[in-house]
User: Fold these one by one.
Assistant:
Number 1:
Amino acid sequence: MVGQVIWWSCPMRTPLIITLLLLLISTTTANLRRDSPTNGLCTQLIEPYGYPCSEYITQTEDGYLLGLQRVSSRSGIVQNQKGPPVLLVHGLFMAGDAWFLDSQEESLGFILADHGFDVWVANVRGTRWSHGHISLSENDKEFWDWTWQDLALYDLAEMTRYIFSMTDSKIYIVGHSQGTIMSLAALTQPDIAKRVEGAALLSPISYLDHVSAPLVLRMVKMRLDEVILALGIHELNFKSELGTHIMDIMCHGHLECGDMLTSITGGNCCFNNSRVDFYLKYEPHPSSSKNLNHLFQMIRQGTFSMYDYGKWKNLVNYGKLQPPTFDLSKIPKSLPLWMGYGGADALADVIDVQHTLNELPSKPYLLYLEQYGHIDFLLSVNCKQDVYDNMMGFFNSNGKHSSY
């Protein structure tokens, strides 16, 4: 997310310049690509802090190879007898490293491990810590033919299946931003929901028609997502050689990149601007142009629906003229939910969060922080005491840890 903000903050004045830059970024060889498990997220960011960490690869039904990490406590408490499994599901243009970018005392992945949870870390298709596809190359346009609905119905479905097969235990899901829309969509599917013990959603999104971030609204109005697809650009990769150079230029002497975050997410009360350079060692990760198009469709249409191909292609793909909606009332009433949301969040707007709450069959546990913005729920310097302690109280009060 940070990298996304920096890139879009370039002082461009015409759609033509934006288009040319997108073409250059998308066609330049990436600096950061797949790492082998021996040089993966465990080795680079988790084990150096003294946490035991294992790398796994699992395959989705449609052939993507996803990376998962499993993290244990430094003290060894959970070496022989692990607590409930918790799957951390990252946001847009992020990956599993997002949960470990601050100190051991501030990062949710480390905090959960030290509290005895069996921590599993998700990395969706296309991100650096996943491992491609069984037959497609990342240079193939078909590799990028997906949106968050596929991340929900294939990636999250497979990750929960795999973790259940490894632990023989139902799973707690923690999602942030895109990770929450994936979770909510997935939990409407009985075969996925039956493997889940509960879900905690940070900056939850499903409906997006009250997004107020000015730069996002500008891009939506310009229909930039549609222009990108029309130009045949399938991958959005801001870690290309040119993309990285542009981010460096914009963040050193030209613009305050922390301030640029506000134009995308709204105000963030407690984001540590001094750590931006460190965050950029890992973020942003690639995503698909089609995914951005799907999210912008939702802003324009005010629906929580599958991808809209247009009436006739919808008829071919879905058997109906309009894309099917994700019916939140199908999430099991017995499934415990927790939501943390903020009054300054311009992406997970409080009106849209209330829309989501109105459609759920149960009443989630709620944590509302008026001063918090979108990124605060992940990277606030006060997140442990403001957010994570409350969330872990939800896990502990639920207290169940079962198989089915």
Number 2:
Amino acid sequence: MSETETRTHRTGKQQNGDAMSETSTVEDVFDDTYKEKDGPKPPRMLVWRNIILMSILHIGALYGLIVIPSASALTLAWTAVCYLISALGVTAGAHRLWSHRSYKASFPLRVFLAIGNSMAFQNDVYEWARDHRVHHKYSETDADPHNATRGFFFAHIGWLLVRKHPDVIEKGRKLDLADLRADKVVMFQRRHYKLSVVIFCFLVPTLVPWYFWGESLSIAYFVPGLLRYAVVLNATWLVNSAAHIWGNRPYDKTINPRENPMVAFSAIGEGFHNYHHTFPFDYSTSEFGWKFNITTAFIDLMCSLGLAKDCKKVSKEVIMARIQRTGDGSNKSG
């Protein structure tokens, strides 16, 4: 990887050696020309449908916690499998593959990741990737969908309970999303998203334990169904909230995103957030390989099986140069 300084960062500095292949997106590079509008902020408009649905979901998830002791060992194992599949649909799929194009995936792998994404029920891949690119391009500004400077609650779940800031909508419309529109798997999932969510987020997790080993429909619905869904949601949201507030910044002390091992553990590898916002095109989102990073291990497995290829990675020399130039001195590189 070249050490030519090629990519503009949010402070106006250049990232040392962040060269990318011609197939990589530039829509995830921070735009330091954006200026927030002067004057009062737009009024906060509550989305009552989302507030009610999220409240019902979390009440159901709490009930799922209560009935866990009544679930069979097979149901608990199935819950873990559903958690992993749905989490990978977000981390390896919507995030690392489709938002950042940090590696290439074969058609079968893209289908699997799209199914996992529907099981996670966090908006279809197209919308998820669009909003995530806006998040990187306008991080911690009014144009950031989950701007962490508005507080933990807003960055975690509050952004889903209110109307988007007009700048989020405006900037999202201006992104080049031709790569997403050209992916037949992405567009098929978008066209059939509601049906795919009903099937993969709710019916499959519920009916498999009921049909194959006689679990009660109630436990099957509330444990691998609602509880698993709510936990995956909150693990993903912690990347937007906790990993933008608590932790160290060994790669770039001028930005908010932090290294948060607890978030990395719960979100199967997405908590190394200072690294990720410094090098968003790195397929591993971390310099530490498989450490707290099931997603990286999964992508590496797919590469070994011939289902993925062309993983983008930052060289050790480039990482160390960046640490010495902009890090906060907390580096633990081995």
